[in-house]
Amino acid sequence: MKKANADAVHFHGTVAAKWDAKYRRGGFRKRSDFFVEQVLPLIPVPGHWLDAGCGSGYFSRILTASGLNVHGIDASRPMVEMARELADEASLSDLLVFNSVTTVESLPFPDQHFDGCICLSVLEYLDHPNLCLDELQRVLKPDGLLILSVPHRLSPIRLFQRLIFETLRAIAPSNWEYATLSNFAMTRTEVASKLRARGFVLCRIAHFDAMIPGFARRVVPPSLMFVVAQKGQLSEPQAGMSASSSECSHAL
């Protein structure tokens, strides 16, 4: 692995034991609630899903609770170990499988293997995010759903956090270190272009920011974009989605 990727894997390994607890409060809790309220209802069940970059398995467990079988992978071994432990505690081990991988830029699965995939806050830490997108496209079945969360390249919040951590590290909150490890972000136009180039139909782009009020998210670039896309042309409309090949360009 190149240094940027290795640093990100190391960082997440050091916080694995406390990672899941982050979703109980603050911005992590708001992001989880947003996913459950705005994104989860778009996912058809049953199905076999991949959680690429699963971390401690928090969102894998949400998917499983909704009726999906999930295979989670992550490059951080401590995260995978924690994911397995938490799945056992929740009595979900029969529906959840977790494995460590060298990188999500190369996936150990055959073509057209999964009904859907989530890849949340992962692309930004990769050396070759485009290779990851190629791999996610490869392992999805025709009409399979891809759900990404990616940082907005023009987010003032993320730019501010990165600037403060890099220039005033001694007084900056330690949890802002992620901003210095993040080396990939996109605008709405860029993410739409990359997905279309890989044969995806863009269904939704939803703006999320834990600090920017909802009414301002249409004019202020958000910290994160949740993107829902479907591989190839839609054979049948899914709940809440357009059956056309045109972009659903509005934010939720």
Describe this structure in words.
The protein is of the alpha/beta class and 252 residues long. The chain has a single domain, classed as 3-Layer(aba) Sandwich (Rossmann fold). The protein is 35% helix and 21% strand. The chain is built from 9 helices and 7 strands. It has helices at residues 3-14, 16-19, 26-39, 58-65, 77-89, 129-139, 156-167, 178-181, 188-197; strands spanning 48-52, 69-74, 96-100, 114-120, 140-151, 200-208, 224-231. Strands 3-2-1-4-5-7-6 form a 7-stranded mixed β-sheet, sandwiched between helices. The radius of gyration is 17 Å and the shape is globular. The protein starts with a helix and ends in a 21-residue tail after the last strand. The relative contact order is 0.14. The model is unreliable at 234-252 (pLDDT under 50).
* Count of alpha and pi helical runs: 9
Q: What is the number of beta strands?
A: 7
Q: Quote the distance from N terminus to C terminus.
A: 37 Å
**CATH homologous superfamily (4th level) name:** Vaccinia Virus protein VP39
CATH class reads: Alpha Beta
Topology as H/E string?
A: HHHEHEHEEHEHHHEE
CATH topology: Rossmann fold
Oligomeric category: single chain
Summarize the amount of helix as a percent range.
25-40%
The largest sheet has its strands arranged as: 3-2-1-4-5-7-6
Biggest β-sheet strands, sense, barrel: 7 strands, mixed
- Tally of domains: 1
Beta-strand content estimate: 15-25%
Which value, in Å, is the CA radius of gyration? 17 Å
- The 3D shape can be described as globular
What is the typical, i.e. mean, pLDDT?
84
Q: Pick out the low-confidence regions.
A: 234-252
Named at the architecture level, the CATH assignment is: 3-Layer(aba) Sandwich
Judged by helices, strands and strand pairing, the structural class is alpha/beta
